């Protein structure tokens, strides 16, 4: 019985830490998005560039998330990742917070 409880507790810990990571836009940004958005590759607006981000931010987070999901110009759908919709939203919100 103790062995089963330990296994269950370990599984719950992994599940909860995964949920925390999934909601962490900064960490997710650093795994993929930075490659284009830190350098401005192929017209990607650089993180923190208020002038380039302003018109995008004006469309709203939901519109920006939809754009990432479907892709736009050089950016492939989902930014070329397998991020979930919720993870994409977390990254978009992080990028907006750093670019206002």
Please provide a brief summary of the model.
This protein is mainly α and 100 residues long. Helices cover 66% and strands 0% of the residues. The chain contains five helices and no strands.
Query: Order of SSEs, N→C?
Result: HHHHH
Q: Give the quaternary arrangement of the chains.
A: single chain
What proportion strand?
under 5%
CATH topology: Cytochrome Bc1 Complex, Chain D, domain 2
Q: Which residues sit in consecutive blocks of at least 5 with pLDDT less than 50? A: 1-22
Which CATH class is shown?
Mainly Alpha
Question: What is the number of helices?
Answer: 5
Helix content: 55-70%
Q: Helix/strand-derived class?
A: mainly alpha
Domains (count): 1
Number of strands: 0
* Average pLDDT, all residues: 84
CATH architectural group: Orthogonal Bundle
The CATH superfamily label reads Cytochrome c-like domain
Rg, alpha carbons: 17 Å
Biggest β-sheet strands, sense, barrel: none
Termini distance? 53 Å
Question: Can you tell me the overall shape?
Answer: globular
Task: Describe what this molecule looks like in 3D.
This protein is mostly helical and 100 residues long. It has one domain: Orthogonal Bundle (Cytochrome Bc1 Complex, Chain D, domain 2), CATH 1.10.760.10. The chain is 66% helix and 0% strand. α2 packs across α5 and α4 packs across α5. The longest helix has 21 residues. The chain is globular. The N terminus is likely disordered.
């Amino acid at each position: 019985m103790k062995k089963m409880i330990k296994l269950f507790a370990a599984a719950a810990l992994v599940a909860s830490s995964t949920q925390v990571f999934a909601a962490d836009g900064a960490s997710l940004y650093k795994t993929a998005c930075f490659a284009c958005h830190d350098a401005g590759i192929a017209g990607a607006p650089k993180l923190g560039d208020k002038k380039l981000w302003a018109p995008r931010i004006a469309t709203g987070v939901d519109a920006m998330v939809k754009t990432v999901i479907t892709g736009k110009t050089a950016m492939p759908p989902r930014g070329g990742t397998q991020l979930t919709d919720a993870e994409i939203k977390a990254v978009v919100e992080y990028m907006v917070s750093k670019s206002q």
